[in-house]
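Action item from last week, closing it out:
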Amino acid sequence: MRGQYLGLTQALLIIVPLTIAVRASNNMLMTTIPLLARYNFHFSNTLIGLLSALTALMTFLSSGLVNSRLRAHSRRLIFIQ
């Protein structure tokens, strides 16, 4: 019985920080892209909105659809490139 709790604790110690890191990087991406587009590339408001929408769509597709349907080896190759 004690071994079950140890395995659960180890899983939580890996999953929770990993989840926080992934969410933080997604949030950084979603907030940084429009700022770079506006102040460095001088995009119009319409282009910034389109860029933000495309970024959100691609984030959704990569994390929600592609990641859940691929095998581990294929997923590793796609996300490394």
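Closing note: DSSP finds three helices and no strands in the chain.
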